[in-house]
Design brief:
The chain is about 15% helix and about 35% strand. It has about 400 residues and is an alpha/beta fold. It is globular.
């Protein structure tokens, strides 16, 4: 089986020779890899496109069985990617659309010039619709900005009975409608490590995650805020498992969720098996960093989300921004894992400190040593060389 990689850039000519645009195709496509020049970077790609929709339109007809098709979104984007689309009609074994490096969000919505990629459209219907089996949407920002239509969605799966669909590590928001909708004879789906929120006031029909007419569904470690219904499970043929989700500030946190398997969900409703009740005092400031700016990371070890979930509920052992789970003995609840040990997220921060600050510290240390030599030289009446100049002793 071959992996076919296509690049998605905001500007095909943008390249400064230093930023890590590429990736290591032999190990982990989450990890950007620096290349010496643009040709070395581009050599790993079959094609390049200026929008996610253009990638889908260009590769669906060219895809072939026996291959996995990757759409790799890269670089900072000066403006929104504004074309909604659907993934359908492919022939490949799998389709993976993912953001890496500078195009990948850091857990909160980020837009404006030189920001991560974001797919934004005022769609009557769905911004990104999946109709093809074995499709994964990973690390994207998706927003349906329609201000009046209440029967619209940011991300959905519908018709064609797709199986093996995964939505993970995305920041998904709506103006007043649904974030993630799964309906119309979907076979199997997993939804985990996503942040879903309504950017405006709750609409009477808005739902964070809505599941209907699905055979098997798994909903894990999502954070869902400010909808009429947070997670609404209408109909599941075989099984639906809901674990480790933080669902709060909604009209109803969990709706119609009858006959589902639940464990350790945090909400205002004390829902399901082993429920965790959130403290809403001060805009949930004891639980989340700052919900007024939609930063849903865990505050500290005093949060009821910390170390309170069930471990190993899905295959990836990390959170929405790549922090290794668990940092303590159990997984945290919601999309974020609090960094308390040297996990993946902590390692990233240590690398950043080493890269940007240690050279400054080293330089300061060297200067201090030079000054010390200079002072000792003056005291002993000896000559010292500092910065290429001879320092003579004081008379």
């Amino acid at each position: 089986m071959a992996n076919i990689y296509s690049a998605i850039y905001g500007d095909l000519n943008f390249w400064d020779g230093t930023i890590e645009w590429g990736f290591d195709a032999t190990s982990d496509v989450h990890s950007p890899t620096a290349h010496a020049d643009q040709s070395a970077r581009d050599a790993q790609y079959t094609a390049a496109y200026t929008s996610a929709a253009a990638w889908e339109a260009g590769r669906d007809g060219a895809s072939a069985g026996g291959n996995n098709e990757y759409g790799i979104i890269q670089t900072q984007w000066d403006s929104d990617d504004t074309s909604g689309f659907q993934i359908s009609g492919w022939s490949s074994d799998a389709v993976i659309l993912m953001a890496i490096g500078a195009a990948r969000h850091s857990g909160t919505w980020d837009d404006g010039a030189d920001s991560p990629h974001r797919l934004v459209a005022a769609a009557v219907g769905t911004v990104l619709k999946v109709r093809y089996s074995n499709t994964t949407i990973d690390g994207m920002q998706i927003y349906n900005s329609h201000t009046t239509d209440t029967n619209s969605h940011a991300l959905s799966i519908t018709i064609d009975n797709p199986t093996g669909v995964v939505f993970k590590n995305n920041v998904v928001k709506s103006f007043r409608s649904n974030c993630i909708t799964i309906n119309d004879s979907v076979s199997t789906v997993e939804i985990y490590n996503n942040v879903c929120y309504c950017a405006e006031s709750q609409d009477a029909f808005s739902e964070g995650i809505f599941i209907d007419s699905v055979d098997i569904a798994g909903v894990y470690n999502n954070t869902v805020y400010n909808f009429n219904s947070g997670i609404d499970i209408d109909a599941v043929a075989t099984s639906c498992t809901i674990k480790n989700n933080a669902v709060f500030g909604n009209g109803t946190d969990f709706a119609d969720a009858v006959g589902v398997t639940t464990n350790k969900n945090a909400s205002d409703d004390a829902f399901g098996t082993n429920p965790i009740t959130l403290d809403s005092t001060g805009n949930y400031s004891d639980e989340f960093t700052d919900i007024t700016t939609f930063d849903f990371s865990v505050t500290d070890s005093g949060s009821v989300l910390y170390d309170a979930g069930e471990a190993d509920v899905f295959i990836d052992d990390d959170d929405i921004i790549g922090t290794a789970r668990p940092q303590s003995s159990q997984w945290d609840i919601g999309a974020f894992e609090l960094i308390v040990a040297a996990g993946a997220g902590q390692a990233f921060r240590l690398r950043a400190i080493e890269k940007y600050f240690m050279p400054i510290f080293d330089d300061i240390t060297d200067k201090i040593k030079e000054i010390g030599h200079y002072i000792r030289g003056m005291i002993k009446g000896k000559k010292r060389v500092i910065g290429g100049q001879i320092a003579r002793p004081l008379s």
